[in-house]
Amino acid sequence: MIAILKQPRFLTFCLAQLISRFGDGLTTIVILYIVGTTSDDPLLIGFVLFCQYSPMFFFGLIGGVAADHFKKHHIMIAADLFRALILIGMIFSINHPVYVIMLVFLSGIGSAFFYPARSSYIPVVVGEKNITEAMGVSQSIYSVMQIAGPGIAGLLLLFFSPTILLMIDILSYSLSACLILLTAVLVKKKNKKEEEISSSSSKEKQWTAIKLGLKVVFQSAPLAFLIILLTQVMFIAGIFNTTSNSILLHEFQVTGFHFGMIEAFSGIGAVIGSILGPYLLGKLKPGYILITTTIFMGLWMTAILPIEFFETLFGLSPVYLWMFGIGLMNAFLNVPISSLFLGLTPNAYRGRAMSILQMFSNFGIILGLIIAGIFSKYIGVIWITAISGGVLLAISLLSMRMKGFAALLNVTKKNKDTSTATQLEV
Asked: How far is the C-alpha of 80 from the C-alpha of 107, rounded, in Å?
């Protein structure tokens, strides 16, 4: 894996991905903070997350088709510059949360075109023989920034205003576009015909590949069971993503300093979990880790009820601990997801399987965002969080009695590099 980084064209491509993913994490935290502090309506936070996730669900396939019919680096550069332009608009709309939310949706459309092009550009950069190794590095970067990006953003929010952070984000997307252009120049210098060969698939083949991917995934009982389970889990995660920021900003009324610190603590928990995850996978079966984590996460979410009481006695310390635990279990959930899907999916179908997984995961998250946004106005964000935790606990316990769970326990982990699979946002 280290040897492939010695290729200059792949190194610049990885740096572009690293910077772009940092920009994504920075945008998410800043927008949630802006909307949360300019409005006390939890429904608006739900709309922010809905606008963040829904474009990938609705436009991801269109972005994939575009990546197969146009030069991929052109799409990535255009998407980065488009998202940078959207952020300029956000700076001028920072006191108008509705306008900010609309711009989030437009930025999400840019991401829906960027990520299919990025994934399919990897064979162009490294060649067919190095795809597996390159995907490992690429997904490792994705995983690290998925955890570290929001944490770094939380720390930056301690010292800088949201406007300054948006300007940093604009710079990150601009640098990413420049590095992608440099990558394309290096690729062309290495092999002028390489990109033309890699992008020659037709529209008919694209649809055939999608159908084959769906067939492979849903004809596998363990994979189908895991997707159904994860759709429900991500439904609960969507509820939490909506309510957690509202709990911090409205219920506990944390300052910008503590909001950043609490987000950082959650990120620290996720980093620790990502370090411990591979060790636990060497000791336990992925299926056990997955179901145990969902059970504990359900219990941990219901613990928000006593946390509300303890906060009045001990200040924000219990809140810090609660968010740290959420970040820790988030990483424990991602590790077995990665391991199970890599172990269960044939090599030739892994990309499509991950796309299907992400589609259903985003569908669950979107439903959770909608439900949380509606019902939190009537029963409160704390109670909707606790209830969703109870639902997650019930789903986890019932899943242990299903035949598909027994099939998961028979899985032999074929790929020990858990960082090569897609990480999901909880």
From this structure: 9
Contact 424, 415 (CB under 8 A): no
- Give the integer Cα–Cα distance in Å for 56 and 366: 11
Classify residue 411 as left (phi > 0), alpha (psi -120 to 50) or beta. Answer: beta
CA dist list (Å): 14 to 25, 27, 125? 17, 20, 11
pLDDT on residue 414: 46
List the structure tokens of 55: 């474009």
Q: In whole angstroms, give the CA distance from residue 322 to residue 320.
A: 6
Residue 339 tokens, joined: 């391991």
Amino acid letter, 39: S
Q: Tokens 């992008």 correspond to what residue?
A: 199
pLDDT in tens, 141-186: 665 676 567 667 777 887 888 899 999 999 999 999 999 999 999 9
What is the distance between the alpha carbons of residues 34 and 100, in angstroms, rounded to a whole number?
9
**Angle, alpha carbons 44-369-230 (nearest 5°):** 160
Phi-psi region of 160 (alpha: psi -120 to 50; beta: other; left: phi over 0): beta
pLDDT at 411: 62
Q: Classify each residue of 386-411 as buried b or exposed e, where b means 16 or more C-beta atoms within 10 Å of its C-beta.
A: bbbbebbbebbeebeeeebbebbeeb
Strands annotated E in 147-294: none
Q: Can you list the domains of the chain with their CATH numbers?
A: 1-201 (1.20.1250.20), 202-426 (1.20.1250.20)
Angle (nearest 5°) at CA 135 between 133 and 137: 75
- DSSP percent split of the chain into helix, strand, coil, nearest 5: 90, 0, 10
Q: Taking Cα atoms as reference points, which of 142, 111, 115 lies closest to residue 421?
A: 142
Residues in the chain: 426
Look-up: residue for tokens 């994979």? 223
Residues 381, 301 contacting (CB under 8 angstroms)? no
